[in-house]
Amino acid sequence: MPEYIVIILRSIASFSLLLIGARILGKQTISQMTLFDFVAAISLGAIAANLAFNIKIKFHHAVIALAIYVAVIYLLAFISLKNKKGRKLFAGDPTIVIQNGKILEGNMKRMRYTLDYLNQQLREKDVFNIEEVLFAIVETNGTLTVLKKPQFRNVTRQDLMITVMPEKKLPIELIMDGEIMKENLEQNNIQLSWLESELQKRNLTSRNVVYAVMAANGNLYIDKFMDHIHSPIDKE
Prior knowledge:
Layout: H1 3-25, H2 35-53, H3 59-82, H4 84-91, E1 95-99, E2 102-103, H5 105-111, H6 115-124, E3 133-138, E4 144-148, E5 172-176, E6 179-180, H7 182-187, H8 192-201, E7 209-214, E8 220-224
Antiparallel strand pairs: 1-2, 1-3, 3-4, 5-6, 5-7, 7-8
Helix pairs in contact: 1-2, 1-3, 2-3, 3-4
C-alpha cells in the first residue's frame, strides 16, 4: 500500500480514537483545564499525532498507548471525584491573591503570578480600580474569581425590594432554521396548534422563521429570515 494512503488512513483512525477518548473523559477535558487536565490533553495529543504520521510506530502499539492513557486519566479523574485528598493532589488548591483588599505578594511569588497579569485578569472582570476588590482567588484552572467590596457590588432587584416573577425553566427552542422542534414541544407540553396560532398572528409560517424561542417568562421571541435591514453591519 502506498505510504500516503497509510498516512491518510492512520490520520483518520487517530482523529477518531482521540474523539472517542475525549467523549469517554467528558467535557472537563475541553473546558478551562487544571494542570492535570493540561498534561493529560498534551499527552493524548502527542500520541494521536504519532499515530497519524509516524509510520515507524506500529499502529496497534500506538492504539494500546492511547487506550492506556485514556484509562489512567479516567481512573485518576474518578479518584479525584470520590476523594478530596486525591482531588487536591491532582488539581491543587485555589490560591488567594487579594485578601481584605490587600495583595498577598508571597502567594503571588509562589505561583509566579505578576502584578501585570493580576491587573489584566481584574480588567477582564470589569475591575479597573484594585481598591474595589475585597477578595481575589486564582482557581485551580487558572481563572481569577473576584469578590468586590460591598459598596462596589451591583444592586440587585432583591436589594431594591422589587417583585420578581419566578422562573422555573430554561428557554425552549421551538423553531430553528425553519423547522419546528417537535421534540421540544412534546417534552414541554406545548401544543403545535398554539405555536401555529402565534405564527398566524404575525402573518408567518415556520418556513419564514430562522429562530423562535420561548423565554423563561413565557414571552415568545421570533427572528425571521427576512429582517428587512437595508445596510447590515459587516466588519471583518
